[in-house]
Amino acid sequence: MIALALAVAAATLAIGLAATFLLRMLPTVRLQLAGLALLAVVLPLAAVLLSGWVMFHMGDDVKILAVAAASACVAVAAGLVLGTSIARRIDRLRSASGALSGGDLTARAPDTGPRELADLGRAFNEMAASLEGLFDARRELVAAASHDLRTPVASITAMLEAIEDGLAEPEEYVAPLHDQARRLAALVEDLFELARIDAGALAHELRAVSLAPLVESCIRGFEAEARARNVRLERRLEPAPEARCAPEEVERVLLNLLTNALRHTPSDGTVAVILAPADDQVRVTVEDTGDGLTPEATRRMFDRFWRDDAARGDGAGAGLGLAIARGLVESQGGRIWAEPRESGGARVSFTLPAAGE
Ligand SMILES: Nc1ncnc2c1ncn2[C@@H]1O[C@H](COP(=O)(O)OP(=O)(O)OP(=O)(O)O)[C@@H](O)[C@H]1O
Ligand SMILES: [Mg+2]
Predict the structure, then answer these.
(1) From the CA of 158, how far away is ligand 2's center (Å)?
(2) What pLDDT does residue 61 have?
(3) Would the pLDDT of 124 be above 90?
(4) 308 alpha carbon – ligand 1 mean position (Å)
(5) Which atom belonging to ligand 1 lies closest to the Cα atom of 348?
(6) How much distance in Å is there from the Cα of 255 to the middle of ligand 2?
(7) 3 Cα–ligand 2 center, Å
(8) Distance CA 19, CA 5 (A)
(9) Which of 151, 194, 252, 301 most suits a substitution to test ligand 1, by most atoms within 8 Å of the C-beta?
(10) What is the pTM of this model?
(11) How confident is the model at residue 176 (pLDDT cuts 50, 70, 90)?
(12) Distance separating alpha carbons of residues 171 and 181, to the nearest angstrom
């Protein structure tokens, strides 16, 4: 008797495993669920029926069969309903993905329902939102770049036409033509640098560098301009460990910050450069007593082509300096940020990893 029970149990297990394997081959989720429901009802009942029949010659097989058939029908129906609802959600996700790849960046998938499917919908929507953000940023970038490239080109064209028409002497326009050409070249150079940052193509050769002499030499380069603008240039260089960085790039960042600080500091103001150790990093800060930063400026000044409304107009920069600075600092493992000073003016700082021993 025990042997028979064991044989029935083993046979049930083997059939169950084989059937599960076969179920996985069914082509749709709906069919797999219906098959699973059928299996879950029929297999235990068949085992019970078989052992009852063999062991006790029961006469109730018809009743048991009827119960089995009824519960199997209910289970299959439930499986089909569940499968249909899952398949419908997957269908909606698929059509959202089709719309997205067809260029409709506002397409979103439903993010309700069973937890796994809702999570999948949310993950899809996050991906779609960041794609949309990326495309918006790209569109704005192209619009801003073409606007800024158009201005010097229009100005060069106008000057050349004036010379051609005999309205001006060539010598008169040599210097402004040079200026505009330089502006154009600087802009193209900045755009190229940004493209390299985006492509992750900045292969810096990082080495241990003492930042004090580097900061000192940058400050010296600005002394004449600061004197001409009647701005005091201060340095506070605390003893700091060497930084692991590419010195030419750090110099470029610092020149950018100093140019900004001088540009925004009125006569009689002060620009200070501070070098200090910070945990396992080295921090460089450029402070000024100038216009200061609005909350919007603090948030957006590292965005490409962003500049304060007051900073637009002739002689203003393109709004790329800080975006490039951020790319350069981050690609050397550092961080850059800005904050308003309590007593007015701006403070922009960046950190670089200390060189270690
Ligand atoms: N020290 C500062 N004080 C006040 N505002 C600042 C300061 N530094 C930057 N900003 C604001 O952030 C904007 C972006 O600076 P960023 O250096 O990126 O561009 P830019 O100086 O305008 O042009 P570019 O550097 O390309 O010549 C500036 O236009 C200005 O509005
Ligand atoms: Mg700048």
Answers:
(1) 27
(2) 67
(3) yes
(4) 8
(5) 1
(6) 9
(7) 88
(8) 21
(9) 301
(10) 0.69
(11) very high
(12) 16
Max avg pLDDT among 63-77, 79-93, 222-236, 315-329: 222-236
Q: b vs e for 30-52, b when ≥16 Cβ sit within 10 Å of the residue's Cβ?
A: bbbbbbbbbbebbeebbbebebe
Q: Which pLDDT belongs to residue 30?
A: 77
Read off the pLDDT of each residue in 244-249 and give the average, rounded to a whole number.
92
Pocket of ligand 1 (CB under 6 A): 256, 260-261, 264, 288, 290-291, 293, 297, 301, 306-308, 311, 316-323, 346
Residue whose Cα lies nearest atom 27 of ligand 1: it is: 317
Distance CA 105, CA 110 (A): 15
For residue 217, pLDDT over 60 is answered with: yes
Q: How many residues does the chain have?
A: 357
Q: How far is the CA of 207 from the centre of ligand 1 (A)?
A: 29
- Which ligand lies nearest to the CA atom of residue 301 in the structure? 1
Q: What is the DSSP letter of 27?
A: S
Give the tokens for residue 75. 């289970």
Residue-level pLDDT at 214:
95
Q: Report whether 243 contacts 353 (CB < 8 A).
A: yes
Neighbouring C-beta atoms of residue 233, cutoff 10 Å: 18
From the list 103, 147, 148, the residue with the least C-alpha distance to 128 is 103
